[in-house]
Design goal:
about 500 residues; alpha/beta; 7-stranded mixed beta sheet; 4-stranded antiparallel beta sheet; 15 helices; about 10% strand; globular; binds pyridoxal-5'-phosphate
Length: about 500
Amino acid sequence: MSDFVRPPTGDLSPAELQVSLHRVAEWAFHYRTTLEARAIGPSTQPGDIAARFPDTMPAAGVPMSTVFDELDDVVMPGILHWGHPSFLGYYGSTSNGPALIGEIAAAALNVSAMTWKTSPAATELESVVMRWILDLLDFPRTFFGVVYDTASVALLHALAAARELAIPAVRARGLLHREGAPVLRVYASEQAHSSLVKAMIMLGLGENNIVRIPTDDVFRMDVDALRAAMIRDRALGFQAMAVVATIGTTSTASVDSVSAIAPVAQEFGAWLHVDAAYGGAIAALPEHRSVTEGLAAADSVVVNPHKWLFVPLDFSVLYLRNPDTLRALFLETPEYLEGDAQRSNETTPDYMDYGIQLGRRFRALKAWMVFRAFGRDGLVSRIREQRRLAEDFAEWVTATDGFELAAPLSMAVVCFRFRPPGASIDVVNAANVAIVQRINAAGGAYLTHTTLRGEVCMRIGIGNMATTTEHLVHLWTQVLEASRDLDVPM
Ligand SMILES: Cc1ncc(COP(=O)(O)O)c(C=O)c1O
């Protein structure tokens, strides 16, 4: 290891900082431009990377050049390359040039958007991007937005507000000592995301108080079944706390009818939360805007720009019809911030008042950079193109003997299945798992599988700006080859 000098402050010297920043820029550039040539999956086995480092923190520091070597030699072999254009798992990666630059700039600033005063620009840019997203998706302009890390945390906050309305003064008195009070219930489709379970656990409401509503033949919540469940529960003495509708469910991107669900929630005095974490983005396309019909009646809506609006992890937005409930629940100003807090102001809020988190990253910076660099038209044309790619892929599936769509095409998610005629469910399930495993192990493409009504299918989500027809053709060729090699009788 070469000798190196650190100034008395202990940080990098200006020279080492400058060289290292240039190096990381080159490193990121090289990574992004050679990504496609890499095998998508890691080459390591579980524990390999951790085993390369000692159990205790090394006492002596090392030059950044050594750190870079370790990054390449030890860390990089264990990366699953989400940004690869043929990585089609989950929703596709939302990384891109401006996003990457925005993350670097935010790290350089490292401000905390607790109050407007602790970072006026972080607060105001957050308000600006909240309004831009509302406008892009044509959501009600009166909604108030706040940024969290994930949709799971956004849901937790929405349900905390719903709980406060259902059990007055739970903030002050807690949940205990409520002898004889009704048990609260939350209703969501059987396709709703698992984050609901965690929220119910965190809020002390119990996962058993989630009522899973069946879905119709295209995986949308059956609204008659919802109403029947709520009537039955009321007769049994339960209290309806919330209904969660989903625009873009995780497996198939199915869309619950918010306009049909809203009056039912209202009839029972329940909070309506809309999980549009993935699917909200499609509303940027006027031709798909109908997915948001009825949204004005929602109490809260979550949209994850880190799923499909080209803002990298993490960036999740909770929109509220009436933010005062959430603010009243979480307003708690520590002594040392009393001088900074402004006592609510619509345009320059103290965002710390709207949730559990005090210190808050300058997440809006990367979103603002992405939105400025691409503009509204750029975002819309990418989403439209990704939808077109998904349509093409779905057509190839339906035009091929032995394959079927496992769910109607929705947004940019395609669920499809290899189903040789006459094969039993067990054979079909095993074949679809085997195809996914083989393709992922080969490293040229990546997809996942999911299970719909007990039957396994393959699933792709297109969200990476770098993904083109060529990448999908490549994946489809591999799927066909793998299905032939399985030698299942057709
Ligand atoms: C519909 C839906 N809601 C919520 C989530 C949770 O998102 P997050 O990882 O931001 O908590 C997901 C994740 O895939 C999802 O698909």
